[in-house]
Amino acid sequence: MDNELYDYSPIVERQPIQWPGGARVAFYVGLNVEHFLIDRPSTSLNEATATLVPDPLNYGWREYGARVGIWRLMETFDRHRIRPSVLLNSDVADRYPQIIKAGLERNWAWLAHGRNNSTLQAGMTLDDERAYLTDVVETIQRATGQRPRGWLGPALTETFQTPRLLAELGLGYVLDWTNDDQPYRLKVPGMLSVPYTVELNDLGIFTMHGRSGADFVQMFKDQFDQLYADSADSGRVMALALHPFVIGQPHRHKYLDQALGYVADHPGVWLTTSDEIAEHYARTNPA
Fold it and tell me: Most CB within 10 Å of its CB: which of 37, 53, 157, 277?
């Protein structure tokens, strides 16, 4: 293997995973709650203006999520008994404290997701990355009263040292390696990989591939149905990756409601968080 972080493990050769209550699929929402710097290019809807400073077109589109979109999503999560796993930029704690307050009232799970989505670790020295990650984790802990247990890198980025540095800070899992339908252990002691998704991800579905809301619902159902069939002998994880500035747009909102209704009302589903998935796997599947 080129990647020294984990071993190759065919899913057909593993010990079965049992989820709580006999559930077959553990389902969680990875909710990206992010801040973007106004003077740096980032995720864009229209590349024609993406390099301009300022860039009201794309910056405003991204900022819609914090101002409007996330509040629309909260109603849907509450209706379907979903506690999202919040992939939190630590800058959000200072810029949008109302979001933190609303999430705390709902007992959301909080994961570290970098300082903002305009800053990546690529090229950082070991000491610089250690200081950066320490600041991110401790800022989130101060804001939420909880030390984050998991990590997703901005744009799913890491350095070769990131998992080890996160373990030093007390974190227990990462979502960046989207290569499995089950959790697995990394070669860093105490560190897991928990499934995330770049396929069932609103940013890719709507902005990169131009799919419709109806397409989104069908993709969601197809993903769930296949994982449910696969889970007859061993549990699976289904992640849904969301961004409030994408799925929170008015013309898309009802499709999220339809998708969550499909899984929330389905038997054999554990509606959970990535924290709970990691904790259960670590406890029931010892190294």
Answer: 277
